[in-house]
């Protein structure tokens, strides 16, 4: 693990990624593990913010992964602009030590000025749900898989600056409630709670995977169809639309902007 070269340089956006799982071999070989996927995504988001002139042209991104399954966490929370929580093949509701510790860690992250923003992706979204006392569990509708257009709520439209969020999905677990003090931002008919924001604008979560492209998604579909996780029908239906356009870069840009300002900055 690299040591964080944290500087006082305000032009570096600092993201600590809590790594909760691994990608599958064909994805790891070609695109890397979660830190590499998130670095690629957020760098694209940063380029978008530069194009929009939301950030200075010499703004940089520093992202470091912390393997929370091995009990590795950032040392100093205030070193970071945002704490991202990754996806995982584990169940967010399982009563096992590393997951229980992660839930407690998320609960304990301070929520004031100067504290890092918190961003949960897929499993990370569910960990945030659990940390704030929502019920988390399996969806009776089964897997939501591949390219999906999620409908944005009024607050979601303001935050994500669109009417839909098109994103790759890979989950059967869901957050059953919107926790108290949070607002729903996106829904599908399969999964109501696709994205949430805390009312104090310090925590945002997304059920889908902005770090997955269609190419990456295809590898997951192939591997998990081969091992019997996905039926042939589900696999074929997902493969048919897997290359549809997604909003990954826009989502990344908004998450970085959120990391820098949240609502206090008036950019909501
Ligand atoms: C959070 O915001 C939502 C939407 O604005 C509101 O319905 C809800 O009552 C708020 N919750 C709390 C605890 O303030
Ligand atoms: C199928 O593979 C995935 C990893 O791609 C793994 O998480 C899952 O447990 C496997 N399922 C079965 C039934 O082997
Ligand atoms: C507030 C809200 O929309 N809650 C929903 C979250 O998702 C579950 C399961 O899909 C719904 O039953 C809740 O109504």
UniProtKB/TrEMBL annotation:
Pfam family, one: GATase
A single Gene Ontology CC term: cytosol
Span of domain Glutamine amidotransferase: 76-219
Protein name as it appears in the record: Glutamine amidotransferase domain-containing protein
Native organism taxonomy: Eukaryota, Fungi, Fungi incertae sedis, Mucoromycota, Mortierellomycotina
């Amino acid at each position: 693990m690299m040591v964080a070269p944290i500087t006082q340089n305000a032009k570096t956006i600092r993201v600590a990624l809590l790594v909760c799982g691994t990608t599958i071999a064909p994805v790891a070989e070609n695109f890397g593990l979660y830190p590499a996927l998130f670095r690629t995504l957020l760098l694209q988001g940063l380029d978008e913010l530069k194009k929009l002139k939301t950030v200075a042209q010499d703004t940089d991104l520093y992202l470091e992964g912390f393997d929370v399954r091995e009990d590795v966490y950032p040392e100093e929370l205030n070193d970071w602009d945002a704490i991202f929580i990754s996806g995982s093949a584990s169940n967010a509701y399982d009563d096992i030590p590393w997951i229980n510790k992660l839930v407690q860690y998320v609960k304990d992250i301070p929520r004031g000025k100067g504290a890092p923003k918190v961003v949960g992706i897929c499993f990370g979204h569910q960990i945030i749900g659990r940390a704030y006392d929502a019920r988390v569990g399996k969806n009776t509708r089964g897997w939501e898989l591949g390219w999906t257009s999620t409908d944005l709520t009024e607050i979601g439209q303001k935050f994500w600056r669109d009417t839909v969020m098109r994103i790759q999905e890979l989950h059967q677990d869901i957050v059953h409630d919107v926790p108290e003090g949070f607002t729903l931002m996106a829904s599908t008919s399969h999964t109501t709670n696709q994205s949430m924001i805390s009312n104090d604008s310090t925590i945002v979560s997304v059920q889908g995977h902005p770090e997955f492209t269609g190419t990456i998604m295809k590898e997951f579909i192939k591997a998990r169809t081969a091992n019997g996780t996905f039926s042939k029908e589900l696999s074929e239906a997902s493969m048919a639309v897997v290359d549809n356009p997604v909003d990954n870069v826009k989502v990344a840009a908004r998450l970085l902007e959120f990391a820098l300002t949240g609502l206090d900055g008036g950019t909501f």
